[in-house]
Amino acid sequence: MKSVRWRLFAPLFVVILLAAGPRVTLAQAKVIDLPQNVDASRRRDVPMTFHLPKQREPQPLVLVSHGGSGSRHSMYALAAEMAEHGYVVVCLEHVTSNTDDVRRRMRTGGIGYRQALIACGEDKVPRKQRPLDVRFAIDQAERLNRDDARLRGRIDLSRIAIVGHSYGAYTAMVCSGVKPVGIPGDLTEPRIDLAIALSPQSANGNFFSRTSFSGVQTPFVGISGTGDIAGDGHRDFFRLMPDGDKHLLWFYDATHFSFSDPTGGPRRLLRPDTDVTHALQVIVPAILDCYLRKDTTLDQSTRDALVKKSLGGKVRKIEWDTK
Questions:
Q1: What pLDDT is stored for residue 287 in this prediction?
Q2: Which of 153, 188, 203, 269 could lock onto 236 through a cystine, CB 3.0 to 4.6 A?
Q3: Could you confirm whether domain 2-274 is CATH 3.40.50.1820?
């Protein structure tokens, strides 16, 4: 029974095998870390890190949602690359499913890491609160864009995307209109113009069912791989969402943990999958350019060129389907 529960909830998490490491200077203009941002209506803190581009004029906003047991720095390498491409990126931290929360569950429950992850996945609190964190973050970005001298006038809030990995993929999916099982109310975030989910959840009835996907009209991109935990279940969204601006990218040999790389931030993975990181740094900004800037298309020739540019090392094949 425990092994079945682990298989159900493992796709929500990133392993916290982290080691202290030097910061890598990347070509973004500035990083602003805001560890305390209290949503008074929920009495909940939503730590955020802003990655700012060099451009001073308003630029589209990209929200980043980490996996379970992660932090706002878990996807630092991709966040920095998106900022280099001219996007204002804000990485959220979800305090009821982050590193500190999992450690708290281990300490107070006298349980191991795996058991703490399962407990976190079964907990309905983060399932409800994560999308609300996104809603608050957009509101907070609007306030900072108006009142904070460091950010004033730099964010174009009419163009917004969300990128999430693992439990962050769940967050992106719910915000784009996928209906979670057992969570009442509408958690769709209508201000989001594009959702990109790395290791998207399946329709196995735990977090989403086969009826959860039918109303999604937001452009949606799901990225997974042959070594991801849920196998072909990561393709479910593509089968079940209605046609129109839906994309499935399938990386051969990529695992669940290939899609989250904190390199450049205050912590680092012992063995990040730098080949997959490179591919994401090529492909994700191009997708953002298409849907947020409208200055490119993702026709077959463009997709083929992006895939070709992304290949190398362990990334030997990427399938990119659209509908």
A1: 98
A2: 203
A3: yes
Measured between alpha carbons, how far is 48 from 58 in angstroms, rounded to an integer? 19
- CA-derived radius of gyration, the chain: 18
pTM of the model: 0.93
**pLDDT of 243-257, one tens digit each?**
999 999 999 999 999
What are the sequence ranges of the domains in the chain?
2-274
Do the Cβ atoms of 26 and 81 come closer than 8 Å? yes
Q: Are 78 and 67 in contact (CB under 8 A)?
A: no
The span from the CA of 144 to the CA of 152, in Å, is 6
Q: What are phi and psi of 300, to 5 degrees?
A: -60, -45
Instruction: Specify burial of residue 28 (Cβ count, 10 A radius: 0-12, 13-18, 19+).
Output: buried
Q: Please, which residues have CB within 8 angstroms of residue 136's CB and are 6 or more apart in sequence?
A: 37, 39, 42, 46
